[in-house]
Write a structure and sequence with these properties.
The structure holds 2 protein chains of 2 kinds.
Chain A lengths: L1 E7 L6 H14 L4 E5 L20 H6 L9 E4 L2 E4 L6 H13 L3 H9 L5 E5 L15 E6 L3 H10 L5 E6 L4 H13 L4 E7 L2 H8 L4 H4 L4 H20 L1
Parallel strand pairs in A: 1-5, 1-6, 2-4, 2-5, 6-7, 7-8
Antiparallel strand pairs in A: 3-4
Chain B lengths: L16 H5 L1 H9 L9 H13 L1 H5 L28
The chains are: A alpha/beta, B mainly alpha.
């Protein structure tokens, strides 16, 4: 089992939609996938037409003293999703405190899930370090747009996690320039592929589907498939 | 699934995009001339133009000793008249 997480360098870079697309793409390549929504916005399940999940989710279950693992939904036999659940801001902070107090919670949960899945995909929120403590993670990807804000934030964060450029528009001079600069200076950190800007990605959420299902021929869906293939190659290399 | 012939199988430690795409670096290896001095002028020019085109990038330069030493964007009040100027 391999764990992968995605977190935006800043908010609003399209991380959740990309995560839904990646989960769908990995499953289409024959992998057993569990998508885990770590974000209090609880939006990931909307890509899978799961409004009926109502308030339930792993965080809701923790508050209500129920079993977290019973909150997952099977979308296909090999593509499952574990929503966050509907919580008030105060309730999410209470979960945050619990996760900070016991940062091994998700490491233990990962171990209990290992036999059933090839991939655990964690959609991480922006500013909740407790929620980002998911245990061992082979591919902790930071998602960026090629814009000035992400440029400054990447410099300030000075980490070493892999960076993936989302919503890339090759027609933009600024984006071309930033990608050139980033490729030069972040050589090994930057993923060798980008996900192109594509209206199909936005439409997919409005259609309650991941982009690979909504528009399999779209550029974004093809990019998500390339990303999934890259993930499989990285897993093989790092094994 | 058929596997690739051993000769062109990927190395365990995949080379970075720069290494893969850098014909000159590969040529140095092939010719066994690691000390060959070669400057890719057009690539350097392109990079330098990209850095000069956007004033903000000059305020946030990427250097090898990056990290805590990146100055805050505002260390002094912006003077009237300068605000909004291109350079």
């Amino acid at each position: 089992m391999t764990s992968l997480s995605m977190r935006g360098v800043r908010g609003g870079v399209g991380t959740t939609s990309l995560m839904a697309a990646l989960g769908y793409a990995l499953e289409s390549l024959g992998e057993r996938v569990l998508l885990i929504d770590m974000s209090p916005e609880n939006l990931l399940s909307l890509h899978f037409n799961l409004r009926d999940s109502g308030k339930s989710g792993w965080a809701r279950a923790m508050l209500d003293d129920q079993d977290w693992y019973k909150q997952a939904w099977g979308l296909t036999p090999t593509l499952h999703i574990l929503p966050y659940g509907r919580l008030s801001a105060q309730e999410s902070m209470s979960i945050e405190q619990q996760l900070i107090h016991d940062p091994q919670i998700w490491a233990r949960r990962q171990a209990s899930l290992a036999a059933n899945y090839d991939w655990l995909l964690f959609d991480l929120p922006q500013r909740l370090p407790g929620h980002a403590a998911i245990g061992p993670c082979l591919l902790p990807i930071q998602v960026a747009e090629a814009d000035a804000a992400c440029h400054v934030l990447l410099l300030q964060q000075a980490g070493s996690n892999p960076v993936l450029v989302n919503r890339y528009d090759p027609g933009s001079q600024l984006q071309r320039d930033l990608l050139l600069i980033w490729r030069q200076y972040y050589a090994t950190r930057l993923l060798p592929l980008t996900v192109h800007a594509d209206e199909a990605m936005r439409e997919a959420l409005a259609f309650k589907q991941p982009v690979g299902q909504y528009a399999p021929e779209s550029l974004a869906a093809q990019d998500a498939l390339s990303l999934a293939t890259w993930c499989l190659a990285r897993r093989r290399e790092m094994a | 699934m058929a596997s690739l012939p051993a000769k062109i199988q990927l190395k365990n430690q995949a080379p970075s995009r720069n290494e893969r795409a850098d014909d000159i670096a590969r040529l140095k290896v092939e010719l066994r001339l690691p000390s060959l001095e070669y400057v890719d002028v057009s690539a350097q020019l392109e990079l330098s133009r990209a850095l000069k085109r956007w004033p903000l990038l000059a305020d946030f330069p990427i250097t090898d000793d990056r990290g805590d030493q990146v100055p805050l964007p505002v260390v002094q009040p912006v003077r009237q008249g300068k605000f909004g100027a291109r350079k």
